[in-house]
Amino acid sequence: MTLGQLQARSVSARPLHGTVVDVMDAAGPQVWYDMTVEVALSVMAAARAEHLVVCDEDARYVGLVTRARLTAVQDSSGYTDRLRLGDITDGSGPFIPPLATREEAEDTVPFGRLGLVPVVDEHGSALGILALSR
């Protein structure tokens, strides 16, 4: 899998209604789940990204990792240089279908959870990221 980024959208030009596709940001760099934590941090630094979309060998979304999460894992006592993104990504977090409204998206996410939520299509591909702030 090669790294790639979708075109970013302007935050100030977002409509107040419609689907999450209208208000989502680019997914950001997409990487394989077997990448090591150290390499992932290097990719983030090179891409100047704060998160990575983690995909399986079929390019399906399996999770999202942030720089803060990777740094915390790297600083933990159980860290080894063989630790892979798949070892720290559970894929059980919420994701949102592209045709959902923003209101439906906010209802999908557990109450009080703020931050980045992936927008994933019916084939498992990450299309973008929705930043929720309540």
Automatic annotation (TrEMBL):
It comes from the Bacteria. This is CBS domain containing protein. The gene is sle2_010. Residues 24-82 form the CBS domain. InterPro entries: CBS_dom, CBS_dom_sf. It holds the Pfam family CBS. Keywords: CBS domain, Plasmid. PROSITE patterns: CBS.
